Amino acid sequence: MAHRFFENGRIQAGLTPLQYHKILEEQAAADPENLSQEETEKLTYTQLNLHRTNRISRTFKLDEDLGALIDQIDQKQTWMLLTEPWCGDSAQNLPYISAMASQNDNIDLRLILRDENLDIMDDFLTNGTRSIPRLVVFDQSGNELAQWGPRPQEAQKVFLEAKEAG
Question: Over 90: is that where the pLDDT of 163 sits?
């Protein structure tokens, strides 16, 4: 059965990487005056993430072996990435995911803002949390094929060990 992301045109409401980047730029350029402490922190993270994303996008070259694997995808897929501009892990991973998706015309990458789509996010929790980025791959009928995130397995291990150590 197709995921609800495919119902009522919500998939079309998903952002393309270019649309998302425009939102990232707009949010990074926000005026910090009259922001709460939390909003100021998010603005700072968003500004840093804009720089991270731009740097990685400029310097990353898709590995030949990975490119060959992605080229083997011969059926239409939708890659849904749950993200937010203030999320550091998203900034570090989105340029790579975007480059992979752009390698093959069968892949339609759609970015979904987590905080505006909690019902969808809640279908893809990580250990009961709304951790992002979260990539979910669907076939053309809306059936889930795979999930990934919020970070590479080895990085998650380091994160959990550091969290446990305080």
Answer: no
